[in-house]
C-alpha cells in the first residue's frame, strides 16, 4: 500500500511563496519599467483595516488616474458632476503571489480611454499566510470601504443601492478566471490537452497555489456534514445557483478566456451560462470572448519594444465593455474587475 504524501507545512509553503513572489515581481518590474509605452503609476496609496475577516490585518489600495493626481479627501463632495466612475481591480496570482501594480498596463488602457475614471487596485492579503477565505474577504472589505468613502474621493456611487453591504455594482470584468473548483487540475488539463504543453505554469506551481489557498480546514462544508464542498459559490462561482447569480451579479458582465489555458472550458461555459440569463428579469449583457493561441497570464509578460497584439485586443474590448457599464444615459458607478 502506498504511503500518502504528507501535506506541506505552512513554513515550507511560505518559503516557496517567497521564491515565487520574487520571480513574479521581476517579471512585473520588466513589464512596468522596460516595456513601452510605460504604464501609469499610482496617484495615491492608502492602507485600510480589515473588518470582514476573522483575522485582523490591513489592505493596501492603489489609486490611479489619467492625470496622476487625485483630489484631497472632502474636496468638491457636493458637486455630482465632478464625481468619477470607478474600476476596482483585483490582481491575479492564485491568491498566493502577485501585486496590485501587476495590472498597471491594464489600468493604463482603461485610463487612456476613460480619462475621468479612477482605478483602484487592491492589495489583498495572500496565501499561505492568509488562505481562503481571507483574500476574498479582503476584496469585499475594499469594495465596502470605497463605497463608504466615495464622497471623500469624488467617486460616483449612484449605482450602489441599499445599505452596505448591499452594494450594487455597475459591472464585472474577469480575465481568464477559475470558476469550477469541483474539477481537479488533472481533470481541467483533460478538458484542454494543449494547455499542459503550452502553459508557462508548471504542475509544481499549480500545486503550490492550491496547497496555499485551499487549506482543508478552511474550506466550506456541505450542509449538515463535514464533507468539503468544492462546488460552493465562494469557491466555484460558475456553479452558483441561478437565483443567487441574478440576485448578486451586476447587469453587465464580461469574461475573457485563453485558448491555451486549463481554465478555458469552464470559463467559456460560465460565460455561455450567463448569456442564458440575459433578459427582462435577468442580466442586461454578457460580453467577452476567447483569445486564441495564448496561455494563462499572457498579458502580464514584458513586451519590451515588440508590443502584444492579443493583449491589446483583449484590453481594447474590455475597455469598450467598461463604456457600456459607464454609459452617460445611466448613472455611472463602480465596476469590479479581476486581473
UniProtKB/TrEMBL annotation:
PANTHER family: ARYLACETAMIDE DEACETYLASE (PTHR23024), PUTATIVE (AFU_ORTHOLOGUE AFUA_1G02580)-RELATED (PTHR23024:SF600). GO terms for biological process: antibiotic biosynthetic process; monocarboxylic acid biosynthetic process. This is Alpha/beta hydrolase fold-3. Residues 88-160 form the Alpha/beta hydrolase fold-3 domain. It comes from Penicillium daleae. It comes from the Eukaryota. Keywords: Hydrolase. One of its GO terms (molecular function) is hydrolase activity.
Amino acid at each position: 500500500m502506498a504511503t500518502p504524501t504528507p501535506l506541506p507545512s505552512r513554513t515550507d509553503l511560505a518559503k516557496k511563496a517567497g521564491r515565487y513572489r520574487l520571480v513574479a515581481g521581476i517579471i512585473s518590474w520588466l513589464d512596468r519599467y522596460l516595456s513601452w509605452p510605460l504604464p501609469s503609476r499610482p496617484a495615491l496609496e492608502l492602507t485600510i483595516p480589515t473588518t470582514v475577516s476573522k483575522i485582523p490585518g490591513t489592505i493596501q489600495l492603489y489609486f490611479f488616474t489619467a492625470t496622476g493626481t487625485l483630489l484631497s479627501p472632502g474636496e468638491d463632495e457636493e458637486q455630482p458632476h465632478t464625481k468619477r466612475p470607478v474600476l476596482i481591480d483585483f490582481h491575479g496570482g492564485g491568491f498566493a503571489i502577485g501585486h496590485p501594480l501587476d495590472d498597471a498596463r491594464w489600468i493604463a488602457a482603461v485610463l487612456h480611454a476613460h480619462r475621468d475614471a479612477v482605478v483602484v487596485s487592491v492589495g489583498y492579503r495572500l496565501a499561505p499566510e492568509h488562505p481562503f477565505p481571507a483574500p476574498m474577504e479582503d476584496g469585499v472589505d475594499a469594495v465596502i470601504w470605497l463605497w463608504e468613502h466615495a464622497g471623500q474621493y469624488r467617486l460616483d456611487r449612484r449605482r450602489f443601492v441599499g445599505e452596505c453591504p448591499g452594494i450594487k455594482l455597475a459591472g464585472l470584468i474577469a480575465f481568464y478566471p477559475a470558476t469550477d473548483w469541483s474539477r481537479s487540475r488533472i481533470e481541467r488539463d483533460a478538458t484542454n490537452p494543449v494547455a499542459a504543453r503550452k502553459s508557462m505554469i508548471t504542475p509544481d506551481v499549480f500545486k503550490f497555489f492550491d496547497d496555499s489557498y485551499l487549506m482543508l480546514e478552511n474550506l466550506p462544508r456541505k450542509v449538515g456534514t463535514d464533507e468539503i464542498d468544492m462546488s460552493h459559490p465562494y469557491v466555484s462561482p460558475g456553479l452558483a445557483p441561478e437565483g443567487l447569480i441574478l440576485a448578486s451579479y451586476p447587469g453587465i458582465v464580461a469574461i475573457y478566456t485563453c485558448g491555451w489555458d486549463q481554465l478555458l472550458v469552464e470559463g467559456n461555459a460560465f460565460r455561455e451560462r450567463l448569456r442564458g440569463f440575459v433578459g427582462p428579469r435577468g442580466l442586461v449583457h454578457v460580453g467577452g470572448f476567447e483569445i486564441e493561441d495564448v496561455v494563462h497570464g499572457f498579458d502580464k509578460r514584458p513586451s519590451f519594444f515588440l508590443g502584444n497584439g492579443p493583449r491589446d485586443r483583449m484590453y481594447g474590448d474590455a475597455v469598450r465593455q467598461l463604456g457600456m457599464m459607464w454609459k452617460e444615459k445611466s448613472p455611472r458607478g463602480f465596476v469590479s474587475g479581476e486581473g
